[in-house]
Known about the structure:
The chain is of the alpha/beta class and about 400 residues long. The chain is about 30% helix and about 25% strand. The chain has one domain (about 70-390): Metallo-dependent phosphatases (Purple Acid Phosphatase, chain A, domain 2).
Amino acid sequence: MKYFPRTNLKRAKALSRKRTKRYVLGGGILLILFAAGFLLARGVELLPEQPKQPVGQHRPATVQPKEFSIVASGDVMLGRRVADAMRKQGVHYPFAQVALYLRDADLAFGNLESPLSLQGTPLPGKGIWFRGDPKGAEALREAGYSVMSVANNHTLDYDTPAFLDTLAVLREQGIAPVGGGKDPAEATRPAVKEVHGRKVAFLAATEMADIFWSWKYRRTLEVKADQPGVVKLDELQLVDAVKALKGKADIIIVSLHWGTEFSDYPTEEQRRIAHSLVDAGANLIVGHHPHCLQGVEVYRGSLIAYSLGNFVYDKQTRPKSQEGLLLKVFFNERSISRATLYPVLIKDEQPWIVQGNDASRILQRTAALSKELDTPLVVRDGVGVLNISEARQGV
């Protein structure tokens, strides 16, 4: 056995440890290189996936569906003294003060309370007949309307020829008539418009479809297999029509010509029917016929405007028949997010969006009537505001 001085022993052990580390390190490197070669041969990527955008930038958030709006007006009557004003002032005169509000929405809807034709004879015994010039359809288009209900008690004032003319001139201007037609299939067909990728379907019906005014000429307004006309408000059939649209349309709007003339309140039967339609899937119900405004109601996230009053009309004996509402509803996804009510005052056969005392009077009355329907309407900056999530009832 050899003898090594203590200092030489320490140096030998240190040298041995260094050699061991080199062997281990070298072996590890060889092992890594072997593994890398094997993985590359198998087509495996060694580096992690690189970010699609520069480091430090966030990925873009999911794009939300664009909010869109629909504006609905009250009764539009282009006959009688309104027709006289159009002949004197020009065909666009009735909408001169409100067209910007109608065009500002993605869709504009109204109730056409008069035929547009140079043909036809007055229905015997009716007593009040409206008829406008066919050029009125151009005025409606230029004002911004894209859908018009014809389901009311005046659209057949000049019988079948004028009614069919009205449907034709509306379509020529790109306006979809709804709630009436040459036969039941056409009359009950929903008007469907697409907005930002969303399908919006309109239905319309009237309580007055089965009325006639002369025993000598018992021609009702209701569409039949052998008679052009309008859709009768039959609750069960309308509920079925709404249900049939679920899955085919994103938004369902129902226009109803109903109620008691000059009454400030919907009947309990109207409320029951409206709730039934909402339960079936309707998002918005727009009412006409009373010739004065009524309250609005939020029910299960849907909005019911029982009567928007008159919009384009001539001078009426009752001051409240010169007042109305222009309703603008905002939709997000497949539901209503909010709504705005503009106060309307008719002056010289023209609707105006008013401010000041006139606006306050109209909106405060609307708020009071809506409160009786358990719906809070906030009056702010000359308009009525509904936050549907806050006003949601019955959920």
